[in-house]
Amino acid sequence: MTHHPSTPLFLGIDVSTQGVKALAIDAGRGVVAGTAGVHFGADLPAYRSPHGFLPHDDPRVRHADPRMWVEGVELALQRLAAAGVPLDQVAGVSGSGQQHGSVYCGASFAELLAGLGSHGELVPHLAGALSRPTSPIWMDRSTTPACMELQAAFGARLQTDTGSPAIERFTGPQIRTFAREQPEAYARTATIHLVSSFLCSLLTGSRAPIDYGDGAGMNLLNLKTLAWDPAIAAFTAPGLLDRLPPCVPSHQVAGHLAAYWSRFGLRPGIPVVLWSGDNPNSLIGVGGGTPGTVVVSLGTSDTLFAAMRDIRTDPAGCGHVFGNPAGGFMSLICFSNGSLAREQVREQIGADWQFFDVEACRQTPPGNGGKLMLPYFVPESTPLVLQPRVRTTFETATPAERVRALLESQALSMRLHSAWQGEAFRRIRVTGGASRSAALVQILADVFQAPVETIAVADSAALGAALRAAQAVGGMAFEELYGRFCQSQRVVPPRPEFRQVYDDLLQAYAAFERTGA
Ligand code: XUL
User: Fold this and answer.
1) Pocket test for ligand 1, best of 99, 170, 214, 318 (most atoms within 8 A of CB)
2) Inter-residue contact 274 to 408 (CB < 8 Å)
3) How many angstroms is it from 90 CA to the middle of ligand 1?
4) Which residue in 87, 119, 235, 268 has a CA-CA distance of 20 to 30 Å to 81?
């Protein structure tokens, strides 16, 4: 169906692990004008990356070919135009990249950008402009020695100043590892980009800055000064500060769309707003950019993120702090055993989802007689548990009690491990597959004593990028945009009569986790 916009369109492009999503919004009318997707494995098989990364003998090594991301963006734009979205009506564009991944550009990358389009297709010229042919992505776990060295050199300051302790997938440890293992290639590197700033540079035809949202996922940005930390950068790799683009607020215009992109129907010269990471973009895409809302995404692993007014860091070292594209900061806490654990328990008791999501909690009371479970079927990030192991406070339990023990423990863990933010959560927004579970939604409301809103925002990162473009270029307020694009479907209120039950159970859970995790 052809879309006839009455107001300008804004475009969000999300380059994630598995593929690319392009999404155009008519911000004035509050409608999504169209979306198009590309799956790297299925649509770009020549890159031999069925899951978005290159196979490697060492399972800790996870790299992707950055040309695949660019080709994915081009194909997504073609498909969006083919779907009838009038790309010539787009007035501003922004994007989202999987976080932490880094792209190593040689000196000729600047020339490639300056002459964008004068040599025809972009992708065939990219390889010659890179000093490292592949990019480590967030799934890479091969940098433990670099993390230990950073930690030994800076101790607690690393976390209090950059928002996270040294983390394998974060860009600083990745850069340190590369500079040491391939010093010549590092010496040939003129600029190190994140996935987000790399693609933004290709759109504008000039070196794009990194935004505070994605920049905070590098173990390099000092959140107190909002500048690269000179001492940490110098320790990470020689001459690193000269190789990093500046880090600036997310709402800045990076530049104007290069003429190259007119081949897809876009108007050259439209403003390109800085790209950011997928999690900061999702915060905006689900309407969570204002402090007071906590967003819980219930997927294979569960993630919890929330806007924060001031910088605070997790004393346990599990949660991360990134820049919030709407201003201030945001948390990101990952619970690895999310639906993964829910699936395991459901299989163990041989129940269907109707029983798991509804019946089990009808048959059992809130508090469950103190039955709790530490459901570490795989290694857990929050709290940090390296050896997977499931523990319970009980020896025998009915299937229904087991389900409640799992769900209550998961919700209590979220409350316990997000308390460091010091934010009173006035509402919880849930997304993801398991938000269909009536039981889990009610338990979250009761445990946090806050209303839970279910939202049906598909493609939250791409939508967040489009909303950011509308805010920065179209001059619309985020609150207004949230009202138009991020409405809740259902609101489940907390039941005050169970406040005490869960305050008490939280203490019991914390004690059990301390001894059992
Ligand atoms: C966040 C993280 C992932 C990536 C890819 O720290 O590693 O969420 O951003 O989605």
Assistant:
1) 99
2) no
3) 28
4) 119
Probe target for ligand 1 pocket from 21, 279, 320, 336, with the most ligand atoms within 8 Å of CB: 279
Pairing of strands 271-273, 253-256: antiparallel
Q: Which residue in the block uniquely carries the two structure tokens 């590369």?
A: 178
CA 5–ligand 1 middle distance (angstroms): 34
* Residue owning the nearest CA to atom 1 of ligand 1: 99
On whether the 288-456+487-517 domain is CATH 3.90.1170.20, my answer is no
**CA 223 to centroid of ligand 1, rounded, Å:** 19
- Could you tell me the pTM of the whole model? 0.95
Q: Which atom of ligand 1 is nearest to the CA of 99?
A: 9
Residues enclosing ligand 1, CB less than 6 A? Answer: 17, 98-100, 138, 169, 217, 277-279, 332
Domains 9-280 and 288-456+487-517 share a fold: yes
In CATH terms, the fold of domain 9-280 is: Nucleotidyltransferase; domain 5 (3.30.420)
Residues of the chain with pLDDT under 70: 1-6, 517
Domain boundaries, the chain: 9-280, 288-456+487-517
Q: Which two tokens stand for residue 351?
A: 């129940």
Number of H helices, E strands in the chain: 21, 24
Atom of ligand 1 nearest to the CA of 303: 8
pLDDT reported for residue 1: 44
CA distance 277 to 54: 21
Q: Which of 14, 18, 100 to mutate to test the pocket of ligand 1 (most atoms within 8 A of CB)?
A: 100
Backbone angles phi, psi at 71, to 5 degrees: -65, -35
Separation of alpha carbons 206 and 317, rounded Å = 37
Q: Crossing angle, helix 460-474 and helix 278-285, to 10 degrees?
A: 80
What letter represents residue 340's amino acid?
L
Closest residue by Cα to residue 323 from 486, 164, 484: 164
